[in-house]
């Protein structure tokens, strides 16, 4: 565990991210998992700060409509928000969502891929992967790859679109993987599952995915990014993330943990400032108003090797079920 991680943890509730208010006038924004928690607050802020269109991408339409009602009541801009269905554990749903974005939106300036989860027990999705790895890693990667072409086409002389993936500094506490040769495969086996460990590792893998997307979004002629890719961490926040942690020991842990958690509103400020950092955050990790160094398992030759292996495993797994990934990921 790094000293930065421990310091962050101790000051988490008391030193919160700056409440910046950049203008999003003219911008079209997607926020996944916008019905509750951090995604809800981020979506509200995008509307408050002037975005032209904010797509609330939600697994359950009724929950999304409820979020829309609350956002509209506060902002008085009901024409700005739309609720679109998106189930991040189902490739068909992701593909349908991306097709809708690619055909119906004039431009896509900001995609905040926030939907994420922490499973308390090992559960496989229809595609056969452990659910946390499916939602946080595979599906997030798939959605990112499907949206990048539209975002690329939305670049203008004065604005570079931002693909913002929500990660976690829990990636920093992963000191060892259960396998260095097939890590992604290993974490999809029940014998290697532990809820907190699985979640943290999924977020380390998200950082690996970000590293792989950086060369992919480079302009073929200029080498400059057509899209900025960032990973942001909101800090430990009160939300529904541990909703399935109902065992008595989790309940006690959550009660103690809540003493240091910040609110989701405070955490979501990181999403807002994160999309406003420009090129200096491209390929980087944003937390508490600073660009953080890569996680320990991203560093050095070992980090580079693991990144390549995980990216290969993630894309191989996707290509098996959604072959267009081969082309989207330029493999
Ligand atoms: N809270 C923290 O302390 C913390 C710290 C660091 C990073 N994060 C990250 O922040 C992001 C948001 O988490 P949160 O804390 O706000 O948790 P949350 O309150 O549980 O919100 C998670 C959101 O993701 C959606 N989601 C989960 N699985 C989905 C699926 N299969 N398909 C579509 N949507 C799905 C949820 O939809 P439903 O309501 O329909 O389930 C919900 O809208 C996550 O990526 C999390 O890892 C959180």
TrEMBL record:
Keywords assigned by UniProt, alphabetized: Oxidoreductase
Record-level Gene Ontology MF annotations: oxidoreductase activity
Key word tRNA processing present: no
InterPro entries for this protein: NAD(P)-bd_dom_sf, SDR_fam
Gene3D superfamilies attached to this UniProt entry: NAD(P)-binding Rossmann-like Domain
Keyword Cytoplasm in annotation: no
Membrane-spanning parts: none
Cross-referenced Pfam families: adh_short
Protein name (record): NAD(P)-binding protein
Organism: Extremus antarcticus
């Amino acid at each position: 565990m790094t000293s930065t991680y421990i310091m962050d943890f101790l000051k988490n509730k008391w030193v919160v991210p700056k409440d910046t208010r950049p203008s999003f006038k003219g911008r079209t924004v997607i926020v996944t998992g916008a019905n509750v928690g951090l995604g809800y607050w981020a979506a509200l802020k995008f509307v408050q700060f002037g975005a032209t269109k904010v797509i609330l991408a939600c697994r359950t339409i009724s929950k999304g409509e409820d979020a829309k009602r609350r956002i509209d009541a506060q902002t008085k801009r009901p024409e700005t928000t739309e609720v679109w269905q998106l189930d991040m554990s189902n490739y068909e749903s992701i593909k349908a969502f991306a097709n809708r974005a690619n055909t119906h939106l004039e431009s896509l300036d900001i995609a905040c891929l926030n939907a994420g989860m922490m499973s308390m027990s090992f559960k496989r999705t229809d595609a056969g992967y452990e659910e946390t790895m499916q939602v946080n890693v595979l599906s997030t990667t798939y959605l990112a790859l499907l949206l990048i072409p539209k975002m690329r086409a939305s670049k203008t002389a004065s604005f570079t679109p931002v693909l913002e993936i929500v990660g976690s500094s829990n990636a920093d506490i992963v000191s060892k993987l259960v396998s260095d040769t097939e890590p992604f495969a290993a974490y999809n086996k029940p014998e290697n599952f532990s809820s907190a460990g699985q979640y943290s590792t999924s977020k380390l893998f998200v950082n690996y995915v970000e590293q792989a997307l950086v060369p992919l979004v480079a302009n073929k002629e200029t080498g400059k990014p057509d899209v900025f890719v960032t990973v942001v961490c909101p800090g430990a926040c009160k939300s529904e993330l541990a909703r399935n942690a109902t065992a008595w020991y989790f309940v006690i842990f959550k009660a103690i943990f809540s003493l240091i958690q910040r609110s989701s509103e405070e955490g979501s400020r990181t999403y807002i400032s994160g999309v406003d950092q420009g090129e200096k955050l491209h390929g980087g990790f944003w937390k508490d108003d600073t660009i953080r160094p890569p996680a320990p398992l991203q560093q050095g030759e070992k980090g580079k090797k693991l990144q390549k292996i995980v990216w290969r495993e993630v894309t191989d797994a996707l290509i098996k079920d959604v072959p267009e990934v081969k082309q989207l990921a330029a493999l």
